Amino acid sequence: SFKDWNLSALPIVDDKKGKCIGTISETDLRGMNTTRFFDLLLTVEEYMHKFHGGEVPPAITVNPDTTFETALAKILENGTHRVWICDKENHPIGVFSLSDVISQ
Predict the structure, then answer these.
(1) What is the pTM of this model?
(2) Once rounded to an integer, what is the mean pLDDT over residues 56-69?
(3) Pick from 27, 29, 30, 76: CA 20 to 30 A from residue 2's CA?
């Protein structure tokens, strides 16, 4: 589970290109119970479309050279808790989160 690994979110990565295309978080899974058991058979993309009413929010990304200030501004501007750090091909290589800021 997310808690077992001390995670609150994972990037959604395109199978063919390995590009970061979205985020699935604990919030997206809130309300998961036995009455929604069959949702577990959906693909991540199908689940996110269902959960977000047809819209899968895009991944909020930065590159490794992004400044702390810019990364934090992106988090605040987008009302999210994290930005994915991606290489030039948009492959996820890390995450920068509000938890990183608060824990310092």
Answers:
(1) 0.82
(2) 93
(3) 76
